[in-house]
Amino acid sequence: MTKRFPDGFLWGGAVAANQVEGAYQEGGKGLSTSDLQPKGIFGARVERSDDDFGIKDTAIDFYNRFPEDIKLFAEMGFTVLRTSIAWTRIFPQGDEAEPNEAGLAYYDCLFDEMAKYNITPLVTLSHYEMPYGLIKKYGGWGNRITIDCFERYARAVFTRFQHKVKLWLTFNEINMSLHAPFTGVGLAEESDQQAIYQAIHHQLVASGRAVKACHEIVKDGKIGNMLLGALLYPLSCRPADVLETLQQNREWLFFGDVQVRGAYPAYMKRFFADRNISIEITEADKRDLQNTVDYISFSYYMTGCVTTNEEENQKARGNILSMVPNPHLPSSDWGWQIDPEGLRILLNVLYDRYQKPLFIVENGLGAKDVVEADGQINDDYRIQYLNDHLVQVREAIEDGVEVLGYTCWGPIDLVSASKAEFSKRYGFIYVDRDDAGNGTLARSRKKSFFWYQDVIRSHGAAL
Ligand code: BG6
After folding, report:
1. Rounded distance, CA 331 to CA 427, Å?
2. Cα separation of 195 and 376, whole Å?
3. Is there a domain that residue 309 lies in?
4. CB-based burial of residue 61 (10 Å sphere; 0-12 exposed, 13-18 middle, 19+ buried)?
5. Active site residue 362
6. 194 CA to centre of ligand 1 in angstroms
7. How far apart are CA 57 and CA 34, in angstroms?
8. Which residue out of 416, 419, 421, 435 has the highest number of ligand 1 atoms within 8 Å of its CB and is therefore the one to mutate?
9. What pLDDT digit, counting tens, does each position of 241-276 carry?
10. Residue 350 pLDDT level (bands cut at 50, 70, 90)
11. 286 in a domain, yes or no?
């Protein structure tokens, strides 16, 4: 087996606007759902006043410091950087007729900076931060009007950045709406399944419209979806457990099935009927859904188990999901189970199902780092985690899976999504900041920085 990854494989990292940029009111930016969640996706939602402290308001000040950060990414050898555009920088309330020039100009500078180092931008249109204006006025994705607003936004950024950005993604972890409806589709957490699935339907239609617009506007552009790769194993080989696992895996694969195949899968008919859910799907919606994605991207952090046995059904929460722990796997300090082989399995499952190129756009270990007296940060645990996962990516490529690239999550420390912690660090680059917002924001290279540099330089042979 060759140790090198294929030529053209994209190596890099992934961030999201709301977790790095800060500057939450600069350049005419409007309030987003993320701004209303200063304690993260699982924290209380607040009506903002300027006196409230939110760690994301400054985050790592990427808004101002991106030239320094991109230079560091280039030093590691990145050929790709995944980031998102904050929708509220472009359409502050979400329903304006024209885009906000200051927001567009900011991203022009960002993409120009990447181009200096030949770093390919991979851009997510919506990463956990829709305009709050659309929620207040229309009820978020519960209202069809939001589809048109999103399409206007997508067309505006495709048009402006068509020569600078060729790789796009629609909605980050689109299946997360099932677990965090406010973050995903702008609905109250206690919304019923009828409302959530109708809002999801609107988002899937919007995704189809964005695919169409991208193909019309961006010459040689490619646009993918983004799934939270929540692979579940049966806890036992009891047929009932295997069946339940099949059904629970379909709950997230459903999104991929629609976005890749262009129509609702047959199994959803029964799923909806059993739950008395009735979705309004127009003929025009069906046509929009037929605009299928060019590639599939996903995040991968962990796997979990499923059981039908009540006593065994003690779920632990990791990120946005609650899953039954696997007795054969270790866990991170945040209880996320570490399963490198699961990544190989997932890559194979997705490729068997769709036969479309795959892109791993998030993977990583959130951990507490210690700065030694001499300033060094010896994050061997992170190196081990990433190394083990990348070895499995290489195995999957050998299995025949087409993998376009790998962007690990948070190549520079950033604010975590679930609880807005700063102490949960993912980066190769350390940022001097703590949970209370103290620190100089200075950047420094961790041990893993040099490890990743070697991996990229050797096309994976150093793993
Ligand atoms: C993914 C998200 O769910 O997981 C990221 O797309 C997020 O935005 C990442 O940061 C890790 O989760 P957390 O809660 O550790 O930041």
Report:
1. 19
2. 50
3. yes
4. middle
5. yes
6. 26
7. 10
8. 416
9. 999 999 999 999 999 999 999 999 999 999 999 999
10. very high
11. yes
4 lies in a domain? no
| pLDDT tens track for 76-128 | 999 999 999 999 999 999 999 999 999 999 999 999 999 999 999 999 999 99
End-to-end distance of the chain based on CA atoms, in angstroms? Answer: 13
How crowded is residue 299: how many other Cβ atoms within 10 Å of its Cβ?
Answer: 21
Calpha distance 235→304 (Å, rounded): 9
Residue 104's nearest CA partner among 18, 28, 48, 49 is: 28
126 Cβ inside 6 Å of ligand 1: no
CA of 328 from ligand 1 middle (Å) equals: 24
Count of domains observed in the chain: 1
What average pLDDT does this structure show over 335-346? 96
Ligand 1 center from residue 422 Cα (angstroms)? 12
Q: What is the CATH number for 49?
A: 3.20.20.80
Our answer on whether the CB atom of 417 is closer than 6 Å to any ligand 1 atom is yes
Q: Is 219 part of a structural domain of the chain? A: yes
pTM over 0.95: yes
Ligand 1: atom nearest CA of 419 is 14
Q: From the candidates 129, 362, 398, 421, give the one annotated as an active-site residue.
A: 362
| Ligand 1, atom nearest to 228 Cα | 3
Q: How many angstroms separate the alpha carbon of residue 30 from the centre of ligand 1?
A: 23
Structural domain that includes position 15: 10-457
Is the ipTM, as predicted for this complex, more than 0.95?
yes
Residue of the nearest CA to atom 9 in ligand 1?
A: 417
CB 124 near ligand 1, within 6 Å: no
